[in-house]
């Protein structure tokens, strides 16, 4: 017989094709009437078939030869399993009599068993039934094969996507560019090509047309990772009842205004002080009203409560720190409990700049170091001459060849907080080499232009003076302690009240320099060094005669004449007086005084003073609403016991002790912990904002100046928070990326 849609097949072919199908699975000792119609009933090989009246019985060999037979134990008859299934599905009534017994009644003519089975196997209805079952089985297998192939492709696509996501994360963490000059170039493609040698699925993925590496895909992956990092930070901030903000502005390489936003808080679990960068805002202008709206908008978008703001730290610019319309004034009006602190590092730097402008000995020293260092470092030829200078024999009797990298001059940047002293010390160490370099440059006629040559002559003349070396030495003595404080104030865990205390310590340290003994030590050290360098002896300054028209006497006195040492000591003492006065003036801030008052409560309570609830409420002022006053009063009584034999009762010490205590004790002292979180939430310095500017200059360069503000912020988040980015779960990033569209789900499957 010929099956519809196919070539002629024998019944044996169909039986063999269907013998292994799932519908023909054997079922031992099952009744035909009780078995489901789609299940074939096959007797066990050891089964003893009953005999009929003629002594004949069914044979087990027939079930092996005709795999479509099914046995009915109760009636001792056999059926065609395939035809029964087809009859049930199609309900055909025109079935030959020979098929009726194999479908409805059952066959038991054992004498003609093989003959009838062979005849039924060749019948049209049986062939159609077998063909239908074979087609169904093939369809199932094709679907299975397609499903397996699709699953394999999705698994390979997921492996490639994982490599892509991890590569994007690596480039973002290190601040490298992803794209190149064209879409087929760039660090991302180069990195993926290198990694494809170890990831076969990635190699196959990169060879196909759709690689999912467009700029839009890159931006989306970067956005997902950046938002995850940002949400993790916000989650940590919300565990603390209070927070402070740090904001500052700068211009990027394209001249656009960039407004950075950082948050400071005390972790609610570990009690660690944290400062984190949260984003960069492209403000349309730098007016105070615009920047205030930017601050409110960023706080709102980040999901923070503005009424939990307890501190804001800005620089001294009028638009930020203005007393009448500045951003700090607007924030204080909106939330009176937020304390403003003028950045401690900026205050110290402004004090040093004031000294440099008004004290000639300091200003001249800084200018000569800056100008000479820049003049040598800005030219490759001059640097070569400087490095190749061989100094005359020293005390060891040999030539001094100091061409190593440690002898290079350091540029002096007037706005950097911690580089002035290093630059001046390096200049003094290489004073003789600098003189030799200037001399050699002036001897070569073609090495300098007219203007540069005039400047070099002036530098050479100034460096031969004793006063120049003395001025640099005095500046190092003045700026050294100040830079140590500047370095400490940049630490994120430093509190604002501690900055005021450190400033007082610095003033005391500088006051000790204001003595004849200290100046004599500096003078003798400089004089000894000047003799080694062969500098000119210090000259007595010319005495200025006052105009006669201003002398209201007939016998005017001669003006007092000071020798060089006395004159320099006078200027040195004047510089000390000015710098100490400037530091005290700039650190006398209402916000710092308020914080010192809050911390004084801790110190008094640790010494055993009892604070009644009403007294404590008056001392806290606007912050009284932040606490349960009665409980805080009771818990302050426990401070002496908590600090027993633990040293002075400073806020940092109390915080360190509570960090080492159990969670139960912290819960018992919850109001004290809350008090510490308030005190330490107020920033002392805007150093975190300055560090974000450094990251901005690394990410947005001259060659990468066309990126959008959205991409820039996301890249900065991943670059600044390298550790958090490294801890991102790639599966979660991939899951969020894939679930956004149905096409991605079809390509990568469900994660």
From TrEMBL:
Composition bias, Low complexity: 538-549
Biased composition (Basic and acidic residues): 551-563
InterPro entries: DUF4371, HATC_C_dom, RNaseH-like_sf, Znf_TTF
Molecular functions (GO terms): protein dimerization activity
Pfam family, one: DUF4371
Species name: Haemaphysalis longicornis (Bush tick)
Name of this chain's protein: TTF-type domain-containing protein
Superkingdom assignment: Eukaryota
Region Disordered, residue ranges: 537-563
Start and end residues of each TTF-type domain: 54-143
């Amino acid at each position: 017989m010929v099956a519809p849609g196919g070539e002629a097949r024998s019944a044996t072919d169909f039986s063999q094709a269907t013998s292994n199908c799932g519908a023909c699975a054997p079922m031992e000792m099952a009744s035909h009437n009780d078995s489901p119609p789609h299940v074939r009933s096959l007797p066990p090989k050891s089964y003893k078939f009953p005999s009929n009246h003629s002594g004949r019985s069914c044979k087990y060999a027939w079930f092996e030869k005709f795999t479509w037979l099914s046995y009915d134990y109760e009636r001792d008859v056999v059926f065609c399993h395939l035809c029964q299934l087809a009859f049930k599905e199609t309900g055909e009534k025109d079935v030959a009599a020979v098929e009726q017994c194999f479908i409805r009644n059952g066959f038991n003519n054992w004498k003609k068993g093989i003959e009838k089975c062979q005849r039924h196997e060749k019948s049209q209805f049986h062939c159609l039934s077998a063909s239908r079952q074979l087609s169904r089985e093939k369809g199932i297998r094709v679907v299975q094969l397609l499903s397996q192939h699709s699953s394999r492709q999705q698994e390979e696509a997921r492996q490639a996507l994982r490599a892509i996501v991890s590569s994007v994360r690596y480039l973002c963490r290190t601040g490298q560019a992803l794209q190149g000059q064209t879409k087929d170039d760039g660090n991302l493609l180069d990195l993926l090509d290198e990694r494809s040698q170890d990831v076969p699925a990635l190699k196959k993925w990169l060879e196909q047309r759709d690689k999912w590496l467009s700029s839009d895909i890159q931006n989306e992956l970067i956005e997902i990772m950046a938002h995850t990092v940002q949400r993790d930070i916000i989650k940590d901030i919300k565990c603390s009842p209070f927070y402070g903000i740090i904001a500052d502005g700068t211009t990027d390489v394209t001249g656009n205004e960039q407004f950075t936003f950082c948050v400071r808080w005390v972790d609610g679990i570990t009690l660690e002080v944290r400062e984190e960068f949260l984003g960069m805002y492209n403000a349309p202008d730098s007016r105070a009203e615009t920047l205030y709206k930017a601050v409110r908008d960023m706080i709102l978008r980040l999901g923070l409560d503005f009424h939990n703001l307890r501190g804001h730290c800005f620089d001294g610019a009028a638009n930020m720190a203005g007393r009448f319309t500045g951003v700090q004034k607007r924030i204080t009006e909106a939330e009176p409990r937020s304390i403003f602190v003028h950045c401690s590092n900026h205050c110290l730097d402004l004090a040093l700049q004031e000294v440099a402008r008004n004290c000639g000995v300091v200003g001249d020293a800084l200018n000569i170091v800056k100008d000479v260092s820049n003049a040598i470092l800005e030219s490759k030829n001059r640097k070569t001459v400087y490095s190749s200078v061989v100094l005359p024999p020293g005390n060891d009797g040999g030539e001094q060849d100091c061409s190593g990298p440690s002898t290079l001059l350091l540029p002096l940047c007037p706005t950097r907080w911690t580089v002035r002293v290093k630059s001046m010390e390096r200049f003094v160490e290489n004073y003789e080499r600098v003189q030799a370099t200037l001399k050699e440059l002036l001897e070569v006629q073609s090495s300098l232009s007219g203007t540069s040559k005039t400047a070099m002559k002036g530098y050479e003349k100034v460096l031969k003076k004793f006063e120049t070396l003395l001025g640099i030495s005095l500046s190092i003595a003045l700026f050294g302690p100040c830079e140590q404080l500047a370095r400490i104030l940049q630490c994120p865990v430093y509190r604002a009240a501690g900055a005021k205390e450190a400033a007082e310590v610095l003033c005391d340290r500088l006051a000790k320099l204001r003595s004849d003994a200290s100046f004599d030590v500096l003078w003798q050290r400089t004089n000894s060094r000047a003799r080694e360098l062969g500098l000119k002896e210090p000259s007595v300054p010319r005495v200025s005669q006052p105009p006669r028209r201003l002398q209201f006497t007939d016998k005017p006195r001669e003006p007092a004449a000071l020798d060089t040492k006395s004159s320099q000591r006078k200027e040195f003492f004047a510089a000390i007086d000015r710098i100490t006065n400037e530091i005290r003036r700039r650190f006398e801030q209402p916000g710092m005084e308020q914080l010192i008052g809050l911390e004084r409560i801790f110190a008094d309570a640790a010494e055993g003073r009892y604070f009644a609830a009403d007294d404590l409420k008056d001392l806290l002022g606007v912050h009284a609403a932040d606490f349960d006053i009665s409980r805080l009063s009771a818990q302050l009584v426990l401070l002496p016991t908590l600090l027993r034999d633990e040293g002075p009762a400073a806020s940092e010490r109390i915080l360190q002790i509570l960090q080492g205590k159990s969670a139960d004790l912290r819960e018992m002292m919850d109001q004290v912990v809350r008090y510490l979180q308030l005190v330490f939430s107020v920033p002392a310095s805007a150093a975190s904002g300055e560090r974000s500017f450094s990251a901005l200059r690394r990410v947005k360069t001259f060659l990468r100046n066309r990126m959008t503000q959205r991409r820039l912020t996301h890249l900065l988040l991943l670059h600044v928070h390298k550790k958090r980015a490294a801890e991102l779960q790639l599966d979660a990033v991939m899951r969020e990326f894939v679930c956004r569209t149905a096409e991605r789900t079809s390509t990568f499957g469900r994660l």
